[in-house]
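Appendix B, example 12.
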Amino acid sequence: MLIWIVVSIVALLLINKGKLSKKYSLIIYTIVVFLGGVILGGVPNAVLPIQTILSAIGESSNIINLLPMIIILSILLLTVFLFGRIICGFACPVGALQELISKINFKSSIKKQKDVKYKIDISLKTATIIRWIFFGVIVVLAIFWSFSLLQIINPFTGFKIFTNPLASLFLIPGISLITVAIASFIIYRPWCRLLCPFGILASVIGRFSQYKYIRTEDCNECGLCEKICPTHQAERDSKKELCYYCNRCVNVCPQDAIKLGK
C-alpha cells in the first residue's frame, strides 16, 4: 500500500505540473516492475482483495474476517474516484510491465504509429463486453462452486517465480504473467482492459472521477489525441474510465491543450 501511495503521488505531481516526460514515465514503470514485481513478488496486488472476498463468500466465512480486505479495496477505489486510474497506470507492477512492453508497438507519434504493422486494436465496446463476461465467470465460480479461478491465473502471483523459482505453486500464474507480457506487444494492456477484476470495478468508479485529463480552451479539435489514444478515451465526451495516464495524448497535442482538471 505504501508503494502504491508514494508512486501515485509522484506521478500525480508530475502530471499536474506538466512535467511527466517520457523519460520520467519510463523510470517510474521500471522501478515499479523491479521493486514491486521482481524483488517483492508482485505487490501491490490489486486482485488479492477481490479474490479473498469472493472466496470467503463462496465458503460462507465470517464477514468480520473480510474487513481488512474490504477496507483496502475501498481505499483503492476511493483513489480511483478522486484521481482516475492513476494507481493502475503507474503503481501496479502488472500494469507497469504491460505499459513498458506496449511502447514497442503503441507510439506517441502519429507518424511512427502509421509504420506499426503488428497491432490489434480492440474497441471500447468489445473490451467492455469481454471484461464483464470474464468478471461474471469468476464471480459465479467463486460463489457457487467455491472455485477461485483468480487464485490460479493471477499474474501478480506469477512474479513470485523470481523470489521462489522452484515452487510449482507459481507455475500457472507465472505462465499467465508471461502470456500477458507477450500479448502486450500487440494488444494495449490486455490484462487491465480485458480481464482484471479490479480493473472492471475501477472502470465503473472511474466514470465519476473528480480529476482527470480534460481539454482546455486551447484545443483546436485537430483530433490527433483521438487517433493516438490506445484505449479510445481521448474523445471530448469520454468519461476516461480506461485512461491510464499513458500521456500519449499529451505528447501528441500541438496546442498543449490537455491538462489534469476537474
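The chain has a mean pLDDT of 91. The longest strand covers residues 212-215.
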